[in-house]
Amino acid sequence: MVRIDRRPVVTLGETMVLFDWNGTVVLDADRARAALNVVLARRGLPTLGEAEFSLRFRLPLAQLFGRLGLPEADHAAAEEEWNTELAATQTRLREGAAECLTTLARAGAWLGVVSAASAAAVRFDQRALAVPAVWNCVDASVGDKLELLLRHRPQRPIAFYVGDSADDLRCASAAGYTAVGVADADSSPGALRAAGAAHVIERLDELLAIVA
Ligand SMILES: [Mg+2]
Q1: Mean pLDDT over the full length of the chain
Q2: Would you say domain 15-27+92-211 falls under CATH 3.30.70.2860?
Q3: How far is it, in rounded angstroms, from Cα 134 to Cα 110?
Q4: Hey, what's the torsion of the CAs at 24, 27, 28, 30, to 10 degrees?
Q5: Does position 145 have pLDDT exceeding 90, yes or no?
Q6: Is the confidence at residue 201, as pLDDT, over 90?
Q7: Is the separation of the CB atoms in 107 and 8 below 8 Å?
Q8: Contact between residue 173 and residue 146 where contact means Cβ atoms under 8 Å apart
Q9: CA of 125 to the centre of ligand 1 (A)
Q10: What is the pLDDT of residue 1?
Q11: How confident is the model at residue 186 (pLDDT cuts 50, 70, 90)?
């Protein structure tokens, strides 16, 4: 019997794909909502669904608590509870993330993270969520994404940046990347395209067809 080698041929050796972290690879909006809902439920206040959360959630916390009906004298205690819940609540990966990352890595793409989050937060999520260890570079605590993206751009002839905020997409286009926006409840495809997204996806494995 002839055995067929099903390992993919390396085809993405000329391609680099960099990712924003929070809201793109790791979804933390749910974590913020879960923490807020614990605070509200303890006080007998109505909890927020996904759509309502994305409409009403605005920092600073004290003002948010005020709008949601907590008396001012309770804001400090509520904030402490919120922080405790946030630290204890698990984040999750965007749908299709693990498959997308392992497939791109196997095909030889250069993969990286360029994120404003701290290195500790990225490492924590990476371990807690068992994100495939595929990264060629991880840049955390990035204040100026444009500068970082410009610095990485010569790495490979073809480059994509995947992000969930308008700023991600503006920086990506300005630095010569194909900007890919990830859409969900808080970011509409129209807004992402207006900010420079050439493609808009919901699941990360949709990226495979775009990159190939
Ligand atoms: Mg983000």
Answers
A1: 89
A2: no
A3: 9
A4: 140
A5: yes
A6: yes
A7: yes
A8: no
A9: 14
A10: 55
A11: low
**162 vs 48, more confident:** 162
Compute, in angstroms, the gap from residue 165 CA to the centroid of ligand 1.
6
- Dihedral sign, Cα of residue 53, residue 32, residue 66, residue 41: positive
> How many A from CA of 108 to the centre of ligand 1?
25
Predicted confidence (pLDDT) at residue 2 exceeds the cutoff of 60: no
- Determine if residue 176 is left, alpha or beta; phi over 0 gives left, psi from -120 to 50 gives alpha, anything else beta: left
- The Cα–Cα gap between 191 and 189 comes to 6
- Hunting for tokens 């994305």 — which residue is that? 54
95-100: long-range pairs with CB below 8 Å, 24+ = 95/202, 95/203, 95/204, 95/205, 96/203, 96/204, 96/205, 96/206, 97/25, 97/131, 97/204, 97/205, 98/130, 98/131, 98/132, 99/204, 99/205, 100/204, 100/205, 100/207, 100/208
Domain range summary for the chain, segments of one domain joined by +:
15-27+92-211, 29-87
Model confidence at 171, pLDDT cuts 50, 70, 90, reads very high
| Cα 42 to ligand 1 centre (Å) | 30
Q: Look at the block and give the residue holding tokens 């006080």.
A: 43
Under a CB-based contact definition with an 8 Å cutoff, are residues 81 and 40 in contact? Answer: no
Q: Report residue 190 as tokens.
A: 């129209």
CA of 77 to the centre of ligand 1 (A): 28
